[in-house]
Design goal:
436 residues, alpha/beta, 2 domains, ten-stranded mixed beta sheet, 10 helices, 20 strands
Length: 436
């Protein structure tokens, strides 16, 4: 890192430390919450802001996020019409609305949700939750997740009781109100705990009223024995926004986490998935799709830890990049000693629609067991000319034929999503970006 870059980073870190002192003075957190805030800022001082040669940010330039002043926005007003537009048809009676990271009970409705809702500050009275959060902060490797914890104040815990099930999916809608002037930062924080044999269908959506914001979100999912989660995350921020989300997953014996991620892109979008398959029989599926135009960016950083025998993980990502857009997948599967009979597959496919677009791939396996079945692969290509020619011979114009081929490329991931309303939404919005 050059001297100028180092000075800029030092200034940004000093500014954030000053901001944290002001935060503690104004909010006066107490007890366990204060301990987490203080532990997180200490961890931030160890990690520091990343730069381009940082191992976790090989393909991501975080200069704009690190250098900007951290002005926090908390729960500004938002119209009910805007909220209603982003709530899915199956979720009207099972939806949590967080505006700038703050839970808005007046806009939410959980009358059909089989859950118990607690502020994080209250949840910390439970020894297991307190211990879990303290441990994740002590071992945090993502500086932006550290910042989220350092300023943690308005977080929520969703408790799903043992054997609970619901026909309706639960939707969490994160609304960022943005700013007409300087950039503002919001810090959504949600922790989900599932009891033994509980089942949860969860949709998380990010949307922005206007641009000029940085949403820095953390979601923890703790799945008990034989519990199951069907999870979909939709990133639909304003194009003039920055987005970092970390999803941390802990899977117990025979538990399942089936996830899909759809990204529209923004100035910078980065998804960090950290999954721990902690006990025998745990299973993880992670699919992702992004459609990028202009100068939009989406980056995925994935670390999957197989920590017990007989666990399964499958990943498939598909990115469509056009114009000057950028995508990257940095994914590593770690098979620890003793995690015998692991099965793991990872596949990354990229469709390039422009010579100026970038798609970077870094699949990796770290295996410390000798009886496993693990594969990985990545492809980068353009529209198949033979397929294009075939469609044209059937009377389709070049434009329509290209749209059909590009849409079918993304559809294979979209159709794996378990929620019909989400699939319809993505077909009408995300795939519309391919009709230019």
């Amino acid at each position: 890192m050059t001297t100028t870059a180092a000075e800029s980073t030092d200034q940004a870190e000093s500014a954030l430390l000053d901001q944290h002192k002001q935060f503690l003075s104004e909010t006066k957190p107490a007890g366990a919450l204060l301990s987490l805030n203080e532990a997180a800022i200490q961890r931030f001082e160890v990690l520091k802001f990343p730069y381009r040669k940082h191992e976790m940010y090989t393909f991501v330039n975080t200069k704009d996020i690190a250098a900007a002043p951290y002005v926090f926005s908390y729960g500004a007003s938002v119209s009910e019409d805007f909220v209603r537009k982003h709530v899915y048809a199956d979720c009207e009676k099972s939806v949590l609305i967080l505006v700038d990271g703050v839970y808005r009970e007046n806009l939410s409705d959980i009358s059909n949700a089989s859950i118990r809702l607690l502020p994080i500050a209250e949840a910390l009275s439970q020894p297991d939750i307190k211990s879990y959060l303290a441990s994740t902060i002590a071992n945090e490797n993502d500086v932006f997740a550290c910042i989220n914890s350092a300023f943690l104040n308005h977080g929520l815990m969703i408790d799903v009781p043992e054997k609970a099930q619901s026909d309706s999916p639960l939707q969490i809608l994160h609304v960022s109100t943005g700013s007409p002037a300087g950039k503002v930062t919001t810090l959504p924080r949600v922790l989900v705990r599932l009891g033994r044999m509980a089942e949860l269908k969860l949709i998380v959506k990010y949307a922005g009223v206007q641009g000029n914001y940085f949403v820095n979100s953390v979601l923890d999912v703790l799945a008990g024995e034989d519990a199951g989660v069907q999870f979909t995350q939709i990133q639909q921020d304003d194009r003039n926004a920055w987005h970092c989300s970390k999803t941390r997953i802990a899977l117990s014996r025979n538990s399942r986490f089936y996830a899909s991620n759809a990204s529209y892109g923004s100035k910078l979008t980065r998804h960090h998935y950290e999954a721990h398959l902690k006990e025998t029989g745990a299973e993880l599926r992670l699919n992702g799709v992004s459609v990028l135009t202009g100068a939009e960016q989406v980056h995925n950083f994935v670390r999957i830890h197989h920590e017990a025998p007989h666990c399964v993980s499958n990943q498939q990502f598909k990115n469509i990049v056009n114009d000057h857009s950028r995508s990257s997948i940095d994914g590593t599967v770690i098979v620890n000693q003793g995690a015998q009979l692991t099965v793991s597959d990872q596949l990354i496919n990229n469709l390039m629609l422009s010579d100026n677009a970038h798609a970077d791939n870094k699949p990796n396996l770290m295996i410390f067991a000798d009886d496993v079945k693990c594969t990985h692969g990545a492809t980068i290509g353009q529209i198949n000319e033979d397929q294009l020619f075939y469609l044209k011979t059937r009377g389709l114009s070049t434009k329509v034929a290209k749209e059909l081929l590009t849409k079918s490329f993304a559809e294979s991931i979209i159709q794996t999503i378990a929620f019909p309303a989400v699939v319809e939404d993505l077909e009408n919005t995300l795939l519309k970006k391919l009709e230019a």
